[in-house]
Amino acid sequence: MTKDLTTGSPMRLIFSFTMPILFGMLFQQFYNLVDTMIVGKLLGAGALAAVGATGSINFFVIGFCMGLCSGFAIPVAQRMGAREFSEMRRFVANAAYLAAAFALVLTAATGLLCRDILTLMRTPADIFENSYTYIFIIFMGIPATILYNLLAGIIRSLGDSKTPVYFLALSSFLNIFLDFALILWFHAGVAGAAIATVVSQGVSGLACLLYMTKRYPILRMTREECRPSGRHCGMLCMMGVPMGLQYSITAIGSIVLQSAVNTLGSTYVAAVAAGAKLFQLLACPYDAMGSAMATYCGQNVGACKLDRLGKGVRSCALMGLIYAIIAFLAMLAFAPQCAMLFLDSGEMELVRLVDLTRQYIVTLTAFFFTLALVNIVRFSIQGMGYSTFAILAGVLEMVARTVVGGVLVPMFGYTAACFASPAAWVCADLFLIPACAACIRRLRKLYPSRPDEPRTVTAAVPARAGAGQ
């Protein structure tokens, strides 16, 4: 049920490990797209704009949850690579305790503050209430989001990237059914789309939990291994909190940008919402590559096979370049048709909406390789144990989006908004690429690779590498 990523061809291993993750993310995006398609086609552009206006604050909170869980999984991957299975189980147990605490606090805080946040973001009055309804329900589902992402991260750390896909496929079909049931039959509006998303996420998380308890003997814990440990919780927070903050800091820039787009009117908000959904689908391969690289680098650092780190990054970057070219050419040819997936053909400003959506997505895909490097390099650094660098990269992304949203959008309008994310990716790459090379050099100096020695010689590497930040 587990997979060793410390031996064999890096390209082959990363590709084979990435593909199941990609299919899982595509399933997840599929039911998110169904939400948007149903909302846009059945409830109109106003409802689509209401959902889209919550995108940045949604990413601010849910992104933190996802980053947190990804960080919690890194010590598990490192211990897996070092073959310290008892320590690995201790990290799993303490990650569960921390995840429950974060879920409780975040759910309460976001539920109380989301209306004030939407007001500060200058959400247009004609879509405000629908935006509030949608994002409030999503925030109430934070425990389900954390449950799935934590368990999926742990399973991937063990080298199994396939199992989470099966449960996401099940939840995707459930989400589609609930969308139609709640919106078409029960007339629940945007609330129905939010409820369908939360319920589907919860089902996939519970399915992962039940499966793990029965099918992963390596995770069966003794009473001692289940006890809370300050040391393990501290190490988990050192990995998880910086990764979560990286997402949230990045989202601050997105919130500033969204606020600027909101001032342009609901037509532009709807175009960005449609383009953003299409972008999320197209960017899934890069998200999958990043997740794969975190596990790959974590296991190889744990096994002290440091020569494989650079090879893995280069192999994955080549995969990212090939996909970037394909995605850009596809959007040049088919962006208008793709935009119609989210727009009602009866909209009065349909031609304008399609043109605006095409401009947005073509601009983003033109810079896709810079996004590939952001995901690949950042997650590789995190897998090596230097997760605090993620915060610095997030700060650069935040600054870029803030400058574009706060200064350039008021001056140049929608065109400037289209270039905000590419500017953020370029700024992050200027930091991440030399930072990744520096991390590899540092690990080589601290722990010279000795592949001929037994694995037990390198068992202490992960803890020491993480502590050296």
What can you tell me about this protein's structure?
With 469 residues, the protein is mainly alpha-helical. It is built from 19 helices and no strands. α1 (10-43) packs parallel to α13 (307-339) and α5 (128-140) runs parallel beside α8. The longest helix has 36 residues, at 85-120. The protein is globular, with a radius of gyration of 22 Å. Residues 449-469 have low confidence and may be disordered.
List the helices and strands and how they pair.
Layout: H1 10-43, H2 45-52, H3 55-82, H4 85-120, H5 128-140, H6 142-157, H7 163-185, H8 190-215, H9 223-226, H10 230-262, H11 266-282, H12 284-302, H13 307-339, H14 350-366, H15 368-384, H16 388-412, H17 414-418, H18 420-446, H19 461-467
How many β strands by DSSP? Answer: 0
Mass-distribution shape: globular
The CA-CA distance between the termini, in Å, is 32 Å
Q: Which radius of gyration do the C-alpha atoms yield?
A: 22 Å
Report on the biggest sheet.
none
Q: Structural class, from secondary structure content?
A: mainly alpha
Number of DSSP helical runs: 19
Strand content: under 5%
Mean pLDDT: 83
Poorly predicted tracts of residues: 449-469
Helical coverage, percent range: over 70%
- Our count of domains comes out at 1
Order of helices and strands: HHHHHHHHHHHHHHHHHHH
Q: In a nutshell, what does this entry contain?
A:
The chain has helices at residues 10-43, 45-52, 55-82, 85-120, 128-140, 142-157, 163-185, 190-215, 223-226, 230-262, 266-282, 284-302, 307-339, 350-366, 368-384, 388-412, 414-418, 420-446, 461-467.
